[in-house]
């Protein structure tokens, strides 16, 4: 007897009860960016009920992280996510960030971004209705053929009205839930997750019970298959500073970061002047040592030492100037990016004032 293809949803445990309707499981609104001109985007707020597939495309999008999978080894090793209570014990501050591309990214100041579990991902019926591919989907055919349960012909071109494949979104959702099965392992983790509101709550605002969560986590681990989850979630925590470094070398312009950790230019200059000051102190120590060395007869007559002293002296003069120029260039680049928004807001302000007066 041929082995049956596995179901596309990873659990049957209903920790939140049954779903009355798709709209009840979705958020009130969601934000996304649409193009405004050549190099600018504007943020738009939309009702997710009016387009569930479009909402899922935005909600489960990894963005730039999906483009640099082969570079993520530099930002974090392959391992399950560390338990929440131990994250707190290590001094990390849990920051709620409702973006899946920021999930489990941590900064050097010990801030750890974690995305709460969306309510809709804990309803098996939502998985069946919105994250399962349609019959005859290419991914379903290849999967069923691998399990020896498909006897038909692969589907041909189904035209532009065909239901798009949901496999990529499903892999992201599976990986995301797997991280929570690792994060919330003990009852201590469960209490931390509830304190930070990382787990959705019941309709009466009561928390999910520990017994129900254990049942769900065990089922997620039982059905976990590394080949069926998105590779990003196999690395758990990623260092944000290294993601920014990868962004510098793989995107243009190189000044553009994945996520900038400053919100005003004074913080930008302050953070960069810290390492520039430390580097300047080290350079001063080396120059002092070279000056002492040149006073010694043996080193004064050494041609190699004189060349090294000459080269390092030139570096000590030009290095700080170049470093400061790069910081200033970064500030100017970000100002050039922000300026159109400021000018547009300034231009639209009189129009808003006139409308308010007329109303």
From TrEMBL:
Output the GO biological process annotations, alphabetical, semicolon-separated: proteolysis
Arranged from A to Z, the UniProt key words for this protein are: Hydrolase, Membrane, Protease, Transmembrane, Transmembrane helix
Where do transmembrane segments lie in this chain?
A: 273-296, 308-333
Q: Could you tell me one molecular function GO term of this UniProt entry?
A: peptidase activity
Entries under InterPro entries matching the protein:
DUF6601
Q: What superkingdom does the record give? A: Eukaryota
Check the record and name the Pfam families matching this protein: DUF6601
Against PANTHER family, the record matches this protein to: HET DOMAIN-CONTAINING PROTEIN-RELATED (PTHR34414), SUBTILISIN-LIKE SERINE PROTEASE (PTHR34414:SF1)
The name this protein goes by in its record: Subtilisin-like serine protease
Originating species: Ophiostoma piceae (strain UAMH 11346)
